[in-house]
Structure formats: structure tokens, C-alpha cells
What we know:
Helix content is about 40%, strand content about 15%. It has helices spanning about 15-30, 60-80, 110, 120-135, 145-155, 200-210, 230-240, 255-265, 280-290, 300-305, 315-325, 330-345, 350-360, and strands at about 1-5, 35-40, 50-55, 80-85, 100-105, 135-140, 160, 185-190, 220-225, 250, 270, 290-295, 310.
Amino acid sequence: MxxxxxxxxxxxxxxxxxxxxxxxxxxxxKSHPExxxxxxxxxxxRTLGRTRVIPMSTEFFGRVFFDLFLVTFLILxxxxxxxxxxxxxxxxxxxxxxxxxxxxxxxxxxxxxxxxSFIFNLYFKITLRMSVRRADVIYSVSESTKKDIIHLFxxxxxxxxxxxxxxxxxxxxxxxxxxFERHQPFFLMAVTHLKRKNISGVLGAFxxxxxxxxxxxxxxxxxVGSLERHDQDELKRLTVxxxxxxxxxxxxxxxxEHLEYLYAHTVALVYASxxxxxxxxxxxxxxxxxxxxxxxxxxxPEVIPIPEFRFDPHSEDxxxxxxxxxxxxxxxxxxxxxxxxxxHADVFTxxxxxxxxxxxxxxxxxxxxxxxxx
Length: 374
């Protein structure tokens, strides 16, 4: 079998979707070595294997043109059995005899449109609606996202395969560079989006904990993830206004090694998103041996099933109460919770994701009645 993958997004800084592409196809190459994999990109700044390139700008309209139109030329050249759009979008034109697979990680612009620009909302809504109609099989990363797809687009549930995501192996044994060493207990937050990830709500809750909980007198707050400079400046102003500026540290994008260190040494990861399609950081934290506190919305109860570790993301009091709860845990009780979280996280392997993906591929190619299907 020959599978072609639009890995254009893989050249961006590594976050959830990049990890998904890398780990999914790393496992497929191991479990099905007879499969020929061909990746389609707009440059060769980072590649996964045999890669076909059509040079194109990485600006917004260049990305759109590549995803919707240029990949069709590469499909016609390679003639794969399966074409996979791993990040919400399939091309406008379908080539006959090729099975089109689509991964949907979330439906955020439909659920929380206020968190995105008008242009991005318009593009995402048009292309996702078009892509789910064109797809022969749809892969969802959670039951929650599957329900969203069915509700929003009226898709036949039988067309959707839930694969979840896997978790990278975090042992907590790696040491960190001196600049990342933390000598005080700290809460951790991993973010990529200022509004959707609800950073201001968590900072407000942290301020309440510092003020009201005597157990938190030495506790600090660490935030990692790629944020625009103006977002970082806004958060720093907020911490000063809340009186916690000296306790908050914004580290920006960090390597996997540093992230593993932070996971292993934090009091808890706090993940207060208003909406998620899956939620990889809480699962990574659980795998690394720490507690993850999460919103009780969308997919996050699937990722962290322990009710004591969930809160209402719209309530700073609710978030603060759970943070104080974690600080109050005895070593024995904390160890029991950590064992339960680790057992749950260990189910989410990339090998399992790859096998579920493989099972979802139709055994026979999907034929089209037209030479080119629009």
C-alpha cells in the first residue's frame, strides 16, 4: 500500500499536530514496513521520509493554496492508494481510485469562534465542512470531537473512527538546564492560545490560592508555550495587577527535555481550556508522573477521568479550589492518584493509534464515477 500525507504543517514548531504526524507514521513504518510513505511539503526544512516538495510561501494564503490545490498535482504524480490530510483539510479536487482520509483534531472555530480571527474562522469553517463531505474515512481524536462532527455536519457515525492520540514517553528522569531548574514548588501551564487556553482565568485562580491558602506561601507559577509577544506582554501586565508578578515565569517554547523536567517536578499541570479536541499536555503530564488538573468540558474528561482533578473553567473559584486541593494532598494520597493517572495514560500509545488508523482504511479503493470529482 502507498500512503501520501500532507505534512506541510510538520515544518512549523512542534506542537500537538506535528507530534501526531511524526508519531503516527513512525509507528506505521514499524508495524507495516511494506507500506510506502510519501510526504507532501512546501519546503524541506524538516522532513519525515521521502518527501515531494512544491515550494510555496508559508504565509496564510500560501498555506491555503498548497493544501487546497497544489497537493492534487502531487497526488496525480504519486498515485497513492490513500491520501491523508492529517490537519482538518482535504484538497478541492479528488483523484479517482484514491481513498481520502481526514483527521479532525477539533472543531474549535465552530464551538468557540470568539477565540479566532474572522478570516481564520471563515477559512476553517468552509474547508472543514467541505473536507468532511469529501473524506472517505474520518479520524477523530476523541469521542467528544466525533460528537461535534456528527452534530455540526450530519456525518454518518460509521464513517468516523476514533483513534485518540498517543503520549510521548516521559520518564521524568532527564535533568534540565540550569535556566529551567525550579527550587520552589510550582504549578505549570502549557499553552499555545491565550484566550482558548484561559490563561487569565488560571492566573486569577493562582492569585486567590496565594492570598487564601497558607500552604501556598512559596508556590510559583510557570507557563510554557509559543505565544505572540503582545500576548506575553499582556500576561505580564496582568500578573503585576494581580500582585503575583514575582511568582510567575513565562519560559516560551521549550524543548522536550525541558518540558519533561517541568512535568516531573511540578505540583500539578493546570489545563483550563474552554474547549479541546483531545488535550495532549494533561496526558503527557500524567505519563510523566504528575497530577493534571483540567476543565470539565469537551474531551478533557476522557483524558483525565478522575473527577477530583476537574473544574469549571469559567470559575476562578473552582480552579483555585482544585489547586488548593492538590496542595493539601498527603504524600500517600498523592501517590495513589499518580498511580491511577499513570495506569490510564499508559493506554494511550502511538502504536495503538497507528493500528486503529490502519483498521479505518477501506480495503478497496473508493472509485469515482467522474474522471475528477469536485
